[in-house]
Write a structure and sequence with these properties.
The structure is a single chain. By secondary structure, this protein is α+β, with helices and mostly antiparallel strands. It has 9 helices and 18 strands. The longest helix is centred in the C-terminal third of the chain and has 19 residues.
């Protein structure tokens, strides 16, 4: 294990923001991860887990405790069964499954971060979510001080949420197991209309795996959602806000606000989200509230490629970012009566 003191954390995040940690440990094996967690718990030291850093907003004052960077490696494929160590780079793992001719996560290409974060957020994009392929999550339970195997049904997956996110102080993800599909080189049935259109097929069709992956990467790149050190539009956490899920009553009130503000002929995005609930688009809300691509004049601005990404233009502080985020939240609420919720985890700060 590598140990550093007063260690910069900004370089470990895709925002490139945040102050230092009093102590930074880098663990490369599950045993090292468990040892570091137990040590922090035994001493009552605050603990911050860092994987790929793609979903973290760390305060400018940093973290007065132990930051544990999980850098474990392991890609084990047995037929259609895949086990990933928590520290595996997610987008690289996706590429390897496509090379192996296995379907199920090909449309999750280009998502930054590590494999261990995927069940926590129930990572999803372009019609796929990891909850549809995860079979088990191997985790260290800080309450029982044991390594446990959590089957899919007990992960309580929902939109960008899980049991692990609901109780962030309890579980440390060590490994994630997936069941993929051998569809003779073809993708899973395409569920996302934009992907299907780009490929010239219809929803529900299958296409060659590599074509699906490359198309998603191209779509993501066009929105600044594939990491590029030279492109400040990618100095972000991807989608900063989750898409709101509204009850029927809330959606009716929202629809009325849309009509009053934009005209009765304007129909807001609406997607089924279970009995009595409808999901709408955070990006649409932001744009229609006046926060268009490139909005802002300071060092933190909305991406020039996608209204859902807040970005560091190179000299921003975390407070600059939060000021922009709060402005967007207040503006959307004033316009449409909906309060946006941040998707990244905040450390030492809040909206």
């Amino acid at each position: 294990m590598q140990e550093l003191h007063d260690a910069p954390l900004a370089p470990l995040t895709t925002f490139r923001l945040g102050g230092p940690a009093a102590r930074l440990i880098t663990a490369t094996t599950d045993a090292e991860v468990i040892s570091a967690v137990r040590e922090a718990d035994d001493s009552g030291t605050p603990l911050l887990l860092i994987g790929g850093g793609s979903n973290l907003v760390i305060g400018d004052k940093g973290f007065a405790g132990t930051a544990l960077r999980i850098a474990t490696r392991g890609f084990d494929l047995d037929g259609t069964k895949l086990e990933l160590a928590a520290g595996e780079v997610w987008t690289d793992a996706v590429a390897r499954t496509v090379e192996a001719g296995l379907a199920g996560i090909e449309c999750l290409a280009g998502i930054p971060g590590s494999a261990g974060a995927t069940p926590i957020q129930n990572v999803g994009a372009y019609g796929q979510e990891v909850s549809s392929t995860i079979t088990e999550v191997i985790a260290y339970d800080r309450k029982t001080r044991e390594t446990v195997t959590v089957p899919n049904a007990e992960c309580v997956f929902s939109y960008r949420h899980s049991r692990f996110k609901a109780d962030p102080e309890r579980f440390v993800v060590l490994r994630v197991r997936f069941e993929l599909e051998d569809a003779e080189g073809l993708s899973a049935p395409l569920k996302y209309a934009e992907t299907a259109r780009a490929l010239g097929v219809g929803p529900g069709d299958r296409v060659p795996l590599e074509a699906a992956r490359e198309t998603v990467l191209k779509l993501r790149s066009g929105k600044g959602m594939v990491l590029d050190p030279e492109d400040h539009d990618t100095w972000s956490a991807g989608s900063f806000f989750t898409n709101p899920i509204l009850t029927d009553e809330e959606f009716a009130a929202f629809h009325a606000r849309v009509a009053a503000r934009l005209g009765a002929d304007v129909t807001p995005p609406a997607y089924p989200a279970g009995d009595g609930h409808t999901k709408t688009s955070a990006a649409w809300l932001i744009d229609r509230s006046g926060f268009t691509k490139g909005y802002g004049t300071g060092p933190a601005r909305i991406s020039t490629k996608h209204t859902l990404a807040l970005t560091n233009r190179g000299q921003a502080t975390t407070e600059d970012l939060l000021t922009l985020a709060r402005e967007v939240v207040a503006g959307v609420h004033a316009a449409f009566g909906i309060t946006l919720v941040n998707e990244p985890v905040t450390v030492g700060v809040s909206l």
